[in-house]
Amino acid sequence: MALSISSLASSLSSLSFSSQISRNPNSISIPQPPKTFPISFSSKTTRSLSIAATVAAPAEAEPVENLKKYVKSRLPGGFAAQTIIGTGRRKCAIARVVLQEGTGKFIINYRDAKEYLQGNPLWLQYIKVPLVTLGYETSYDVFVKAHGGGLSGQAQAISLGIARALLKVSADHRSPLKKEGLLTRDSRVVERKKVGLKKARKAPQFSKR
Questions:
Q1: Strands 106-108 and 140-147
Q2: What radius of gyration do the chain's Cα atoms show?
Q3: What Pfam family is a match for this entry (predicted)?
Q4: How does pLDDT run across 8-54, given as a tens digit for each residue?
Q5: pTM of the model
Q6: Torsion of CA 40, 44, 49, 50, to 10 degrees
Q7: Which residues does residue 97 pair with via DSSP β-bridges, in sequence order?
Q8: Are 142 and 106 in contact (CB under 8 A)?
Q9: Alpha carbon of 151 to those of 123, 130, 181: distances in Å?
Q10: Which single residue of 3, 21, 22, 146 could bond 95 by disulfide (Cβ 3.0 to 4.6 Å)?
Q11: Are the CB atoms for 168 and 98 separated by under 8 Å?
Q12: CA dihedral over 59, 68, 79, 117, signed as positive or negative
């Protein structure tokens, strides 16, 4: 018994551990913990790219008070006291138009026409067609009082009012204006809603059961 214990102790003492990685599969290797390496960040000067954009400021509209004074100075006695005047209607819009010799200004409700009609090219074309037809686009200033309806209806009402006012300038203007259909009052309006229907003609969905 004492012999077997002494032989076991001698065999254990002969056993050695290697701390290095060995290619021999029979040897036991203990890996070392990973070493930490300090990382240093070098501060470099960064250049920031700045882009400066210049936006052109919109042209300021002329104040309403100044235009009111201008219109009153051009139209003494108001709209009703003028001689070259015409009334146009479209849907629910009504426009009273006064023409005076000038340079082609359009003033609607004491505001510039381009500002009042929100720069819409179609509406601006409506109000210029009668004068362009006769070649008077730079010969008359147009002063308008419009109310009712929307801007589209008011623009077409102004067109009819200008055409009717041009008839008072000369009776010879009737033929070219009538040929372009500028003297015809557009009688189309929104059709009224009917009882039992959703709109003028739209019916509710049919259900058999």
A1: parallel
A2: 46
A3: Ribosomal_S9
A4: 555 555 544 444 444 544 544 455 555 544 444 444 444 444 444 44
A5: 0.69
A6: 100
A7: 86, 144
A8: yes
A9: 8, 18, 21
A10: 146
A11: no
A12: positive
